[in-house]
Amino acid sequence: VARHFENGWKHEHKKVPNIKRIFAVCLPDHLNETYEEYNDRLERQNGWRGANEQLVFHGTERICSLGEKDEHVTLCQRTTCRLCCILQTSFLVSKAGSAGRSFKRFGPGIYTSSVSSKADDYAIPPWLSDDKAMIVAKVSLGKISIHYKTTQHLTGPPLGYDSVLGDAGVDLNYDEQVLYKNEAVRPAYVVIYQRPLAIGAPTFTMPRSAAQTTLSNTAATLTAAATAAMATATMNSSASNDCTIM
């Protein structure tokens, strides 16, 4: 997951940030089952193309301290914390644009990208926090309709297709995938990373011994923190559907 995040960082004006923690998301059975059923349906429908499953990135707003420390693994219940809402209910097409972003390039849908540095633009941390959070989602794209120009009138993929890919070259600098069905996408991981710096910005270099200690401590606690996060995500999955999601 860390390598996928780093390889997906394409913006030249932003330094690849330091990853602090990675949490696995454990969803309740009914969300896993509907995703797998959708996968199976695409495989039967599309033949050799199959479900076309990929890991992609989604940035959204976090207003709590989830993931900032090893012990901060409990999802908050605030309906305005879009990160925790997604982890509780998974993604909901019905919430498209409810975060205040009225512009939807390919109509109302769930937007992701293979470019982590693009998703970073939408990953909004709490006030004064140095840590940002990004969802790594698994998506079943199926048969993709490729678009190079904005097509806002879409309410779903064109006939015969399962998803839309906005590809770079005309209206877009970096790609984005659009899913129009809730069951086509599920949160899989959460990456907690240091707020990225602009290229050329001054940096503080940690002494070698201190850096080694920090990395060692992080590695020692990562497994326990991820396990706790998985349990918490399952326990809190029945939260209110009144969440606002990007």
UniProtKB/TrEMBL annotation:
Entries under SUPFAM superfamilies matching the protein: ADP-ribosylation
GO MF entry, a single one: NAD+ poly-ADP-ribosyltransferase activity
Pfam families: PARP
Domain PARP catalytic: 86-167
InterPro entries referenced in this protein's UniProt entry, alphabetically: Poly(ADP-ribose)pol_cat_dom
Domain of life: Eukaryota
Protein name, per record: PARP catalytic domain-containing protein
Originating species: Tulasnella calospora MUT 4182
Organism ancestry: Eukaryota, Fungi, Dikarya, Basidiomycota, Agaricomycotina
